């Protein structure tokens, strides 16, 4: 049975799992979660993931949520993206936790506040606060990529797949590639990989559907 | 050589690692990071952790940062807190990622904004926004603990050690134990464990030092 990933195009956390699946060579298919119509809050979806989040991976009897856990499972199945030594493996995990804690958490929220939340509910102070947190994280990432093609080792790992989750999106959210030259170059390395796809090409659903 | 944990009492992320070390039975000592005087931004500390964060664990030649990675290392060394089956291990990782992404990230920031940021810099809208995000996470945690003593399996794991990181602190940050009866009961289970210590007793540094 083909592995299914419940996801939607706007979700950078879904993209981390979808891109890992796509680049791993595993056979998988995307199942659209109509997040913006509240599908993730339905009882059916809550049965899949009580946290009401995407992505969720279903592989036979196994159901996994949290993009980081799905990425670790893809590594377990394919031997890819996890680092090649115990030291690299720990460094990969470090970036995954850092990304979840400091970067994607801010990037996803800031992008939501600036683009998907109805204008009447937007608050300039709250947006500025979140942009500030995000930009502090982007600076750390940019410095870590100085002189390096990949965050850990000689090729793409879950560290890169996690940290890039929100950074290919075109909507404004306080991130401009030209302001972070190392991030810009590194995103170029990722998008040059054979099989790479933009989130809106890799997963169903994008803002123009709702325009 | 004794394992060293660079940490400070106010840091819930440090507490996750410190409590895991303490309950694991490993020999360790705390090294105070004078975070509020900017010690984590010093060149010496940046050499230890370029992200300028606490905690950092130093065990012989090994230097690790990110509480989640330190927790995984303690599990590797002791066999404790990682779950007893592959399914449990994934479920433990799921809660660790969820905590980093959705809960501690908000709890730490909200507590900082409400208590440690000078009053003149506090913004009521920003605080309300962060309290809202935190309370949504607390609700998910409270529901997950319904009828359960521990998040995963029959005893304490890294899931509990991660999620409780900020929840024993006395300062106001939008969390009151009595509003979340399952969390309240579960925190009681944790603090009843032999060897448990409150963050301000387990690690050096607390707000009264700076009063």
TrEMBL record, chains A, B:
It comes from the Bacteria. Residues 1-82 form the GST N-terminal domain. Residues 85-211 form the GST C-terminal domain. The keyword Transferase applies. Coiled coil: none annotated. SUPFAM superfamilies: GST C-terminal domain-like, Thioredoxin-like. Keywords: Transferase. GO terms for molecular function: transferase activity. The keyword Transmembrane helix does not apply. Belongs to the GST superfamily. This is Glutathione S-transferase.
């Amino acid at each position: 049975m083909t592995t299914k990933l419940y996801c939607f195009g706007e979700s950078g956390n879904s993209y981390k799992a979808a891109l890992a699946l796509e680049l791993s060579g595993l056979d998988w298919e995307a199942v659209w979660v109509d997040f913006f119509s509240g599908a993730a809050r339905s009882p059916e979806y809550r049965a899949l993931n009580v946290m009401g989040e995407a992505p969720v991976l279903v592989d036979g009897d196994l159901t996994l949520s949290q993009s980081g856990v799905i990425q670790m499972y893809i590594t377990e199945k394919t031997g890819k993206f996890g680092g090649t030594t115990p030291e690299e493996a720990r460094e990969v995990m470090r970036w995954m936790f850092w990304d979840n804690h400091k970067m994607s958490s801010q990037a996803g929220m800031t992008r939501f506040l600036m683009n998907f939340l109805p204008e009447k509910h937007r608050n300039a102070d709250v947006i500025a606060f979140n942009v500030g947190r995000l930009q502090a994280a982007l600076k750390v990432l940019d410095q870590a990529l100085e002189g390096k093609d990949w965050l850990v080792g000689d090729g793409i790992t879950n560290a890169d797949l996690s940290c890039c989750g929100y950074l290919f999106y075109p909507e404004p959210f306080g991130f401009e590639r030209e302001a972070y030259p190392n991030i810009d170059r590194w995103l170029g390395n990722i998008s040059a990989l054979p099989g790479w796809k933009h989130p809106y090409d890799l997963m169903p659903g994008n803002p123009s559907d709702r325009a």
